[in-house]
Specification:
The chain has 221 residues and is of the alpha/beta class. It has a domain of 141 residues: Rossmann fold, CATH 3.40.50.150. 26% of the residues lie in helices and 28% in strands. It is built from six helices and nine strands; from the N terminus they run H-H-E-E-H-E-H-E-H-E-E-H-E-E-E. The strands form two sheets. It has a seven-stranded mixed sheet with strand order 5-4-3-6-7-8-9, covered by helices on one side. The protein has a two-stranded antiparallel sheet with strand order 1-2. Helix 1 runs antiparallel to helix 2. The longest helix is centred in the N-terminal third of the chain and has 13 residues. The site of S-adenosyl-L-homocysteine has 23 residues, from strand 2, helix 4 and strand 4.
């Protein structure tokens, strides 16, 4: 089931511009048609500063203030594809709300998204975007995400959109059996997008590709 986005009154860019982005994602190897459909119909320009909105449909990361960036569409699509893994996750935890773009993509594909952000200014802006798009299936929290959100778990998937040096242990214990953690792990210039599967026989770790995310930091700001 894909949730239909309410885009009335948000000033959508042309279908052609959005199709170009979808085509580029396809060329880069994104194969999940539902993910492509949702990426092609989500107004990314709402998630960046107005001064940068003409670049919103380029396949590039862009600054969102507070030293943070909105992720590159290819990475959002790739992580979403890995998270779905051909299944239908019911409950997903995201750490690092940022602009809220990845959250909005997920909210159209899974039943409930829980998201945590440590910078209040960013979270406030993201929440107003969720309201504007009538994405009511998102629950959010202003906090340091290192401990996950144990009260709301277990989760079918956990996605981390900032990079810790190593996998925070607490997150693994909040995964359902059959669930997975999608996380970029490493240093500033050497990070591997990593998937940890919580299989009945134990944890299985897979490294997918090199990526570059802002650091996963401690505390609130
Ligand atoms: N998916 C977001 C990515 C934003 S960048 C987007 O596409 O816009 C990563 C975000 O993770 C930043 O907003 C940063 O403040 C946040 N972050 C970093 N460490 C965190 C932590 N420990 N807990 C919660 N959020 C964190």
């Amino acid at each position: 089931m894909v949730v239909k986005l309410d885009v009335s009154g948000v000033g959508m860019t042309s279908q052609r511009t959005r199709n170009r982005l979808t085509e580029r994602l396809r060329e880069q190897g994104i194969v999940n048609e539902t993910v492509l459909q949702v990426m092609g119909s989500t107004p990314r320009h709402l998630f960046v500063d107005e001064a940068l909105s003409h670049r919103a449909y380029e396949d590039t990361a862009l600054p969102i203030g507070h030293g943070q960036t909105i992720s590159q569409p290819y990475i959002v699509a790739r992580m979403t594809e890995l998270l779905l893994d051909g299944s239908h996750p019911t409950s997903v935890l995201e750490l690092g709300t940022g602009s809220g773009y990845q959250t909005a993509i997920l909210a159209q594909l899974v039943d409930q998204v829980f998201t945590v952000e440590r910078i209040s200014g960013l979270l406030d802006q993201a929440v107003s975007r969720f309201r504007k798009l009538a994405l009511h299936q998102i629950r959010y929290k202003y906090d340091d995400g290192h401990l996950g959100w144990p009260e709301k778990g277990l989760f079918d998937a956990i996605i981390v959109t900032a990079s810790p040096r190593s996998i925070p242990e607490a997150l693994l214990s909040q995964l359902n059996i059959g669930g997975r953690l999608i996380i970029p792990v490493g240093s500033a210039d050497d990070q591997a997008l990593t998937v940890v599967h919580n299989r009945p026989e134990g944890l299985v770790t897979e490294q997918v590709e090199q990526v570059r995310f802002v650091p996963f930091l401690g505390g609130k700001s």
